[in-house]
User: Fold this.
Amino acid sequence: MNVTRGRAIALAASTLALPSCASSSNLRVGSKNFTESIVIAEIYAQALEAAGFRVERRFNLGSTQIVLAAMARGEVDLYPEYTGTALIDVLRHAPVRNARAAYDIVRTAFARTYGIDWLDPSPMNDSQGLATTAAIAKRYGLRTLTDLARVSSQLRLATIPEFVTRPDGLPGLARTYGMSFAAVKTYDIALKYQALLAGSADVATAFTTDGAIAAHHLVVLADDRHLWPPYNVAPLVRHARLVQSPHIATALDAVSPHITDAAAQSMNASVENDQAEPSAVAAAFLRAIPR
Assistant:
């Protein structure tokens, strides 16, 4: 679903405490237009508020390109981004399998080209994937993308528009696996799962921390030829703002190590399946961080 419920709530007293380092102007925290980006941006916002910053939320902005354009105009100071997305979709770089190497490439290039600093990455790796139902996986004997490639000409894919053209999307599947589907239909980011569950598609593109995977017992097929690079999430901050307020890094680097695959999938499911507010989910996550 198109989540717009990122309204702020006051951070509870038990939330992670950090030294006060308020700036004289609001920090504008942005996000893309999907659940996980909004939840992680809310985690960043609340951690910064606990550190004494005044935060303005500019969530649900849209695609990577839209948020980066807002950063370039100075309308957003920071937002969560994925190393794989930055590497392939922004820099048009070939996939890099090593997580640290991918991070170092995007960190260097963004600082030089965009004046944007990458802070510490989280262990969470929201990689791309292809998912199907347990019934379809059993019917066709699907465990890996190689298995899927053998029968892809008989199957229908539900995906998002950018996957059709991005190098690690359909072109990458064709190049690496020789994959070609009987039909490809594009949907809004969450509606692709509805198409899969309704029987309008046989396979759907996925991100491996999506809450729908656990909620609907979907099968994520193994990327056995390693098409997709790591997609670790990290805060991106405008360099000029980080120079002005270096304690931004202190606040966010304290929470990033706790954003794991399991934590992200659980938080995504709480918002998408249980209709929890992203602000409440973020507050609960921060309260659970050991102090």
Remarks:
- The radius of gyration is 19 Å.
- Confidence is low (pLDDT under 50) at residues 1-23.
